[in-house]
Design goal:
The chain is of the alpha/beta class. The protein is built from ten helices and 13 strands. Helix 3 crosses helix 4 and helix 7 runs parallel beside helix 8. The chain binds oxa(dethia)-CoA.
Length: about 325
């Protein structure tokens, strides 16, 4: 039987219009542009500040652009996965809302919660479902409205995050392109260092939880930083080695955009020059599940058919891993 691969055939993205600059942030908390640029590397981030709009709004905009660019027939989409930690509602899924808004009638859709690794987990899941032969065309979205859980009086976390969404179309192909290999891990050791204290089944929302600011993202940054550098570097090196990938034949590393110092350290440990590393953290900050596809969105024009690319990320859980893909089209030819 012919081997089926799952290949990315298009990208769409969306970031909200409102730009929150370091200048504005330094009027909200005790910080400076210089501290944020040196310690994190974010110059500005986008914020979805219109009332009543959530993650599905951005996901919908990204997926709409994707569908226009690829000219895909909506009736042929049979799978939708939305990687998000900030769904519109605890239930139903953001993916179900997306199906309605996009007019998708033949899709099986669900949310996937993998924190900052969500897009990689969703890509691997959708790819496996396509390779199984049961699904043919999937929309995989990474989308997060991080501003919905950031405490804008906490200077240690508020400069980091932003809002955004991006989507890819993943299709079955008999050609030798697409998602080739992955190593994904979840160790659960990260709970104390990165979580939201309330709003789940252990500690449902109450006046107490609201009064005590327990619905915000809590992070012990230094610990997360150390785990992120070592795990992302080690797992990417392992994936590269077992696929015969070297600094010569890797076209792009697409790292999670959490901190410029993490990106630099990972590139350095892998001995990959920065010209081969996708970076847009300065413009959008950490958009969690959206960082990796937003990089594809920004760099699409530079991607060439046959390029070896490696995604790598680290996030709450801890979740971490790397995905190797062979790019399937010349981005420069896309409108
Ligand atoms: O995407 C999910 C995974 N998350 C990550 O990968 C995030 C990993 N962690 C990080 O990126 C960094 O740890 C942070 C950006 C969160 C923090 O940077 P850091 O270099 O680890 O700073 P720190 O927390 O060790 O704080 C150093 C100092 C402290 O002052 P003292 O105690 O040395 O006097 C902080 O109070 O910097 C201070 N500080 C600030 N100063 C100015 C913390 N935030 C700020 C700020 N402006 N915004």
């Amino acid at each position: 039987m012919e081997k089926i691969n799952a290949v990315i055939t298009g990208v769409g993205g969306y970031v909200p219009e409102y730009v929150l600059t370091n200048e504005e942030l330094s009027r909200m908390v005790d910080t400076t542009d210089e501290w944020i640029m040196t310690r994190i590397g974010v110059k500005e981030r986008r914020i979805l500040n219109e009332e009543g709009l959530g993650t599905s709004y951005m996901a919908r905009k990204a997926a709409k652009q994707l569908m226009q660019r690829t000219n895909v027939n909506p009736d042929e989409i049979d799978l939708v996965i939305v990687a998000t930690t900030t769904p519109d509602y605890p239930f139903p899924s953001t993916a179900s809302i997306l199906c309605d808004k996009l007019g998708l009638k033949n899709a099986f859709a669900f949310d996937l919660k993998g924190a900052c690794c969500g897009f990689m987990y969703a890509l691997e899941t959708a790819s496996s479902m396509i390779v199984s032969g049961r699904h043919k065309k999937a929309i995989v979205v990474g989308a997060d409205k991080m501003s919905s859980m950031v405490d804008y009086s906490d200077r240690a976390t508020c400069p980091i995050f932003g809002d955004g969404a991006a989507a890819v179309l993943l299709e079955a192909t008999a050609e030798d392109y697409g998602v080739m290999d992955s190593i994904l891990r979840t160790d659960g050791k990260g709970l104390p260092f990165l979580h939201m204290k309330a709003g789940g089944s252990v500690c449902p929302a109450s006046y107490f939880t609201v009064d005590n600011k327990m619905h915000y993202l809590y992070q012990e940054g230094r610990t997360v930083f150390k785990y992120a550098v070592s795990n992302m570097s080690a797992i990417t090196a392992q994936l590269a080695e077992r696929n015969g990938l070297t600094k010569e034949n890797i076209a792009w590393i697409i790292p999670h955009q959490a901190n410029m110092r993490i990106i630099d350290a990972v590139a350095q440990r892998l001995e990959i020059p920065m010209e081969k590393v996708m970076v847009n953290i300065h413009r959008y900050g950490n958009t969690s599940g959206a960082t990796l596809p937003l990089c594809l969105w920004d760099y699409e024009k530079q991607l060439k058919k046959g390029d070896n690319i490696i995604f790598t990320a680290f996030g709450a859980g801890f979740t971490y891993g790397a995905v190797y893909a062979k790019w399937g089209y010349d981005g420069a030819e896309r409108k």
